[in-house]
Write a structure and sequence with these properties.
Layout: H1 2-32, H2 46-64, H3 68-101
Helix pairs in contact: 1-2, 1-3, 2-3
């Protein structure tokens, strides 16, 4: 049961980084369209659906092969986090450049 909690926490971290990227991308679009950078991010439906997806993947994977679902869900979460961090760093640099030029 504790591993499912870890999977939910990984998915929450992935969501948090995704929200930061979404806000950065929104602010970039605002600045490119000569508007005030005040973008936001919607928590719903990402928060409950993402956690349900991760836990469902783990549970179904465990039905196929013992503990394979846990490893697969954790791998998906870690890959998503790394990809989002890279994307967020890129968008943060672009946003900083746009703010500097504005």
């Amino acid at each position: 049961m504790l591993i499912y909690l870890a999977i939910v926490l990984i998915s929450l971290v992935s969501c948090a980084i995704g929200f930061a990227c979404e806000i950065n991308d929104g602010n970039i679009r605002h600045l490119e369209n000569r508007r005030k950078p005040n973008a936001g991010a919607a928590l719903l439906p990402n928060i409950p659906l993402s956690q349900i997806f991760y836990v469902l993947v783990a549970w179904l994977g465990n039905k196929v092969y013992t503990n394979a679902g846990f490893m697969f869900a954790i791998a998906i979460g870690c890959i998503a986090i790394v990809a989002q961090v890279i994307s967020c760093r890129t968008s943060t640099a672009k946003l900083a450049q746009l703010l500097k030029n504005a």
